[in-house]
Amino acid sequence: MTREATLIAGDGIGPEITTATLHVLDALGVAFDWDEQYGGMSAVDRAGTPLPDATLDSIRRTGLALKGPLTTPVGDGYRSVNVALRQEFELYANVRPVKSIVPGGRYTNVDLVVIRENTEGMYVGFDRTFKVGNDPKALAQAMSVMTRDGCRRIVRYAFEYARRNDRRKVTVVHKANILKATSGLFLETAKLIAKEYEGQIASDEKIVDNAAMQLVINPAQFDVIVTTNLFGDILSDEASGLVGGLGLAPGANIGEHAAIFEAVHGSAPDIAGQGIANPSAQLLAAAMMLDHIGEVAPAVRLRRALETAIVKDNVRTKDLGGSAATTEFARAVARRL
Q1: Catalytic choice (92, 123, 157, 161)
Q2: Residues with Cβ within 8 Å of residue 112, at least 6 apart in sequence
């Protein structure tokens, strides 16, 4: 049965890595009925807005989307397109797996997942300036908003993710020693949820600055990390840096009624059109999408083919120390399928 899904190629290198991903999915033999839509700058050029109604309507209908990197236009009046999508569809769980693939790096045993609350915290958009210009008393203010339900929902998701995927431990990352109201609520709620999984999933907690340091010192101590929006944004990129950068970093944004899968890196306009972008993050995001719809065996095959192309065939794009073009890398993965 063919599954309908929304396809947003994105901006910059987005169309290149998306084309490569579709080539590999075809070789994998998994059929999707793609509804192609636009977002970011490419949507502004066509529809006058970075997030057209047609794109939103498509995701509402399909409940499933594969998305390339989107560029939010610079200037007043435009919110982050990615944040807007997450809030529009209540995609409360941002899931960022990080795994060592490329041999020869500093870390060879990283295999962790950062699960980030995706709709609350510092990214709710309550950000304002009271005085501007050269006024020495210029004042800017941002507000973080956390709810008990939001905390409970993301922490339970993390423990359930660990249970489903045979993970051994969940680490709760917070700043409750300073942010006693917001981070305090998060930690308090997390401890209550953790008690429900005693004997099944181990848990511990770390203050965010210590967690950031420990990620660099010994990433193998982490399995699943669950944290708030801002901290998750930072820690997930840090974790990606341990295994070669954002070119190998997929992400999923999961809600009750929709899920969007994406390469988490930017649109890289400086290399757009050169055919040298690494499509691995988009390919791995497609594998996460296959997992989500129950196509687990093809997802395993896709990940294995990608790792084999990099490790055994030594086919690598420039960011991984090689010289393969985007299309060459995609063909190498497809051959391994």
Answers
A1: 123
A2: 97, 98, 99, 219, 222, 223, 224, 225, 239
Q: Specify the pTM.
A: 0.94
Give CATH for domain 120-228.
3.40.50
Catalytic residue check, 67:
no
233 is catalytic: yes
What pLDDT was estimated at residue 1? 64
Task: Give yes or no: 76 in active site.
Answer: no
pLDDT digits (tens, 9 = 90+) for 278-329: 999 999 999 999 999 999 999 999 999 999 999 999 999 999 999 999 999 9
pLDDT digits (tens, 9 = 90+) for 5-17: 999 999 999 999 9
The residue from 35, 175, 206, 319 that is catalytic is 175
127 is catalytic: no
CATH architecture of 1-110+243-337: 3-Layer(aba) Sandwich (3.40)
